[in-house]
C-alpha cells in the first residue's frame, strides 16, 4: 500500500582492433566534502548514459585490397599449410585482388612456364588480430574466386566454393569454369562459424583452384567482417558481472522503470548534511522533539552531499539520480506528481525532472504518474490541463505516440472518468494510454472493466516473497487478456512513522533479507513480464532502493544484475567475486526503551513470521566456502558452483557480523558489517541494513 506523503558523456567506440575502454574504479562512495560544487546543470547533449552504444557494430577484419602472402610455384603443400603457426615468411606477398590475365588486378601471380599446363592451385595466407573474440556475434565472408576456392580460419575449413566435397588435392580441378567477367567479379557471401576465431592473432588460408590446366585467367579477392557486441559498460567494474552497454539494454523490448517519489529527493533544502532537513527527520530531538516518540521519521536517507553553489541544485540532484538509474540499467522513472500546483515545492518539480532527464540522456524516459482528485465532485479539468502542459516534452514516455499514464490506485475514480480524460486530451491532439498501478489483489479475475482502456496492467503489489507468485499469475492473466504486464519489485516495506492508521504506520512486511527482492524479480522473469517497476526507489518512509546512507549501492547493484537478466533473458555470468550482506540492527523481539519510544511497538503486517537472520549474498565466479562469523558463532557453507548464493544464519546479538569467502583454506574476501547487532535498543529499527559490493567510482 502506498501512503501519499556533470557526469561526462562516455561514448563507447567498439572495435575488435583496439582495446576496450577502461573505467576508473578507486574507492567507494565519495565523501561529501570531496564532491564538486558550483557547477551548472548539464546542458542538453552535454552528457549521456554510461556506456551508450548501438546494439551491435559491423567491423571489417580483412578488407578487399588487403596484402596476402602467396605461393604460386605449383608445389603440393599437403594439409599443414593452413595452420596458424605455419612458416610462410619466404612466400611472396601482394595486395588483392590477386591473379593473372585480368585488367584490374593489384598483384599478378605466376601460373608457371607452360601455358598449356598451368599451376592448378595457388596458396594464400593473411594474418589479422582480434582483441576480444568473445564479442564477435557473427562472421561474414565475401569471396571472389576464379575458378574455385576453399577458405580456412586457423586451420578450420569455413567455406568451400566451386570445389567438390571430400578430400581435395593440389591437382583437384574446379568443376565449373568461371569465364564471364561479371561472374569473375561476383562477390559470393556467406556467414561462417565463429568458433574458430581466436583472441589475438588469426590466420586466413585460401587455396585457389583452376578448372583446367589451360585456363585463361585467375582471380582472388576476399573480405571478412564481424558483427561485434558492444563492449561491456564501463560501470561493469562496479558489478560482479559484465553489464551490457546501455544501448544494448535499451534495445530490449522489456523495460525497467524506477518509481520516483518526489517528496524525498537527495536534498530538501540544499544545506550541509549535518544540518539539513534529512538530519532533522532522522534525529529524535530535532524539530522540537516532533519524532521523539518514534526515534525519527525514518531510519535512512539518501547519500549525503555538500551544498551546490548554484540555484539549479534541484536539477543537479535529479541528474545524479538519473545517472545512477542508467548505471543500474533502468529505462526511466515513473514519476509521481500532483495534478495541480502543490503547497509543497518538492511536489512541483515535474518540469525540473524532465529537464534533468533530457540533459543527462535524451533517451531516458519519464512515465507520468499523476495524482488526481479522489473526491466525488472532482473533475478532470486539472489533470487534463497538467498533462497538456508537458505533452510535447521529449522526455515524456510514449508508446506508439501515446503518453503513458501510470497513476497509483486509479480505481478510486471510475473508468468513465478516466475515459473522459482521454477523450478531452484527444480533442487537443494529445493521445494517452493507461498502464495503471491498481490495488494489490490475488484475485486475477479482477479489473475486467479496465480491459478496453489500458495498454497494460500492474499493481502496487505487496512487499513479501510470497506475493511474487501472485505477480507471475497476473502476468499470465494480463497476456491472456491481450494486455501487457508490469511486475512490481521491491526490497522491503517498513514504516516507522506514526499516523492514525494502525494498518499503514508502525508496521512492516517481512522481506526475509534479500528473498523478497530476488523472488519478485525472478517471478517477473518467469512470468514473461513486459515491464518491471521498482517500488519504490525513493520513498524512505516505506520502501526505498536507491543509493542511501545505510545501504550504499547494494540494492542498486542487485537491480543492475536482475535488470540485465530480465532484458537479455540470460543470467549474467559472474566474473568478479562480490559479497553483500543484509541484517537488522536488532532482533524484532529485542526490548526497547518504552520511556523514550512511547509510540506503539512495530507490528508485522504481512508475509511470514518475523525473520531474524543475517544473510550473506555471494556472487561467485567459481566454487568457494562462505563463512559468517558472529562472535564465537561460526557458520560455513561450501558452494560447489559459480553463481548467486544466499547464505543465512541466525542473528546473534552483541556481535558485529563478519563475512568471508575462502578458497583452499585462504580468505579471498573479508567483509565486516557496518551495523553492530545490539541485544536491546532505545528505539526500534526494523529496516534491513546492508553493505558490501565493489569499491569503484560511481555516478
Automatic annotation (TrEMBL):
Keywords, comma-separated and alphabetical: Hydrolase, Signal
Keyword Cell membrane: no
Short name of one Pfam family: Glyco_hydro_71
Keyword Transit peptide attributed: no
Signal peptide: 1-32
Molecular-function GO terms, alphabetical: glucan endo-1,3-alpha-glucosidase activity
Protein name: Glycosyl hydrolase family 71
Amino acid at each position: 500500500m502506498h501512503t501519499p506523503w556533470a557526469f561526462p558523456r562516455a561514448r563507447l567506440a567498439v572495435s575488435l582492433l583496439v582495446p576496450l575502454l577502461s573505467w576508473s574504479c578507486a574507492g567507494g562512495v565519495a565523501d561529501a566534502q570531496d564532491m564538486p560544487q558550483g557547477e551548472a546543470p548539464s546542458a542538453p547533449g552535454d552528457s549521456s548514459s554510461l556506456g551508450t552504444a548501438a546494439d551491435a557494430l559491423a567491423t571489417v577484419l580483412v578488407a578487399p585490397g588487403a596484402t596476402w602472402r602467396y605461393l604460386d610455384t605449383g608445389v603440393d603443400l599437403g594439409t599443414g599449410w593452413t595452420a596458424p603457426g605455419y612458416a610462410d615468411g619466404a612466400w611472396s606477398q601482394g595486395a588483392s585482388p590477386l591473379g593473372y590475365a585480368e585488367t584490374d588486378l593489384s598483384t599478378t601471380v605466376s601460373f608457371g612456364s607452360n601455358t598449356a599446363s598451368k599451376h592448378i592451385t595457388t596458396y594464400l595466407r593473411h594474418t589479422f588480430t582480434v582483441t576480444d573474440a568473445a564479442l564477435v556475434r557473427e562472421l561474414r565472408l565475401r569471396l571472389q574466386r576464379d575458378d574455385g576456392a576453399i577458405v580456412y580460419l586457423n586451420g578450420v575449413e569455413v567455406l568451400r566454393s566451386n570445389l567438390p566435397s571430400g578430400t581435395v588435392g593440389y591437382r583437384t580441378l574446379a568443376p565449373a569454369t568461371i569465364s564471364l567477367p561479371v561472374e569473375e567479379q561476383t562477390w559470393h557471401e556467406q556467414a561462417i562459424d565463429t568458433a574458430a576465431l581466436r583472441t589475438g592473432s588469426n590466420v586466413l588460408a585460401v587455396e585457389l583452384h583452376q578448372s583446367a590446366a589451360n585456363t585463361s585467367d585467375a582471380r582472388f579477392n576476399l573480405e571478412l567482417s564481424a558483427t561485434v557486441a558492444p563492449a561491456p559498460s564501463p560501470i561493469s567494474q562496479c558489478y560482479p558481472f559484465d553489464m551490457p552497454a546501455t544501448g544494448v539494454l535499451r534495445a530490449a523490448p522489456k523495460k525497467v522503470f524506477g518509481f520516483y517519489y518526489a517528496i524525498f529527493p537527495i536534498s530538501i533544502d540544499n544545506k550541509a548534511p549535518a544540518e539539513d532537513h534529512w538530519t532533522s527527520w532522522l534525529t529524535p530531538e530535532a524539530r522540537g522533539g516532533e519524532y521523539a516518540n518514534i526515534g525519527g521519521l525514518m531510519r535512512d536517507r539518501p547519500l549525503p552531499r555538500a551544498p551546490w553553489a548554484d540555484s539549479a541544485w534541484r536539477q543537479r540532484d535529479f541528474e545524479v539520480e538519473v545517472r545512477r538509474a542508467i548505471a543500474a540499467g533502468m529505462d526511466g522513472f515513473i514519476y509521481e506528481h500532483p495534478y495541480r500546483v502543490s503547497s509543497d515545492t518538492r511536489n512541483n518539480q515535474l518540469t525540473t525532472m524532465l529537464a534533468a532527464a533530457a540533459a543527462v540522456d535524451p533517451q531516458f524516459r519519464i512515465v507520468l504518474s499523476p495524482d488526481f482528485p479522489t473526491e466525488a465532485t472532482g473533475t478532470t479539468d486539472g489533470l487534463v490541463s497538467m498533462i497538456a502542459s508537458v505533452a510535447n516534452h521529449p522526455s515524456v514516455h510514449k508508446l506508439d505516440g501515446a503518453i503513458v499514464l501510470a497513476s497509483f490506485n486509479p480505481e478510486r475514480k471510475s473508468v468513465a472518468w478516466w475515459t473522459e480524460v482521454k477523450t478531452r486530451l484527444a480533442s487537443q491532439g494529445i493521445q494517452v494510454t493507461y498502464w495503471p498501478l491498481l490495488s494489490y489483489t490475488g484475485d486475477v479475475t479482477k479489473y475486467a472493466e479496465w480491459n478496453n482502456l489500458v495498454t497494460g496492467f500492474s499493481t502496487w503489489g505487496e512487499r513479501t516473497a510470497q506475493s511474487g507468485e501472485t505477480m507471475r499469475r497476473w502476468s499470465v492473466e494480463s497476456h491472456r487478456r491481450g494486455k501487457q504486464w508490469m511486475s512490481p519489485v521491491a526490497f522491503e516495506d517498513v514504516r516507522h512513522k506514526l499516523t492514525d492508521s494502525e494498518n499503514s504506520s508502525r508496521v512492516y512486511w517481512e522481506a526475509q533479507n534479500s528473498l523478497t527482492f530476488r523472488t519478485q524479480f525472478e517471478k517477473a522473469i518467469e512470468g514473461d513480464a513486459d515491464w518491471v517497476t521498482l517500488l519504490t526507489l525513493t520513498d524512505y518512509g516505506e520502501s526505498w532502493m536507491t543509493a542511501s546512507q545505510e545501504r550504499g549501492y547494494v540494492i542498486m547493484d542487485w537491480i543492475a544484475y536482475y535488470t540485465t537478466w530480465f532484458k537479455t533473458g540470460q543470467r549474467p555470468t559472474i566474473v568478479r567475486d562480490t559479497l553483500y550482506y543484509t541484517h537488522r540492527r536488532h532482533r524484532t523481539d529485542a526490548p526497547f526503551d518504552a520511556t523514550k519510544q512511547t509510540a506503539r511497538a512495530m507490528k508485522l503486517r504481512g508475509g511470514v513470521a518475523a525473520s531474524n537472520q543475517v544473510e550473506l549474498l555471494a556472487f561467485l565466479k567459481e566454487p568457494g566456502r562462505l563463512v559468517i562469523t558472529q562472535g564465537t558463532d561460526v557458520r560455513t557453507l561450501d558452494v560447489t558452483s559459480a553463481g548467486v548464493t544466499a547464505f543465512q544464519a541466525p542473528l546473534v546479538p552483541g556481535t558485529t557480523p563478519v563475512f568471508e569467502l575462502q578458497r583452499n583454506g585462504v580468505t579471498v574476501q573479508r567483509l565486516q558489517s557496518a551495523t553492530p547487532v545490539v541485544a536491546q535498543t532505545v528505539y526500534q529499527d526494523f529496516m534491513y541494513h546492508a553493505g558490501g559490493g565493489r569499491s569503484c567510482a560511481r555516478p
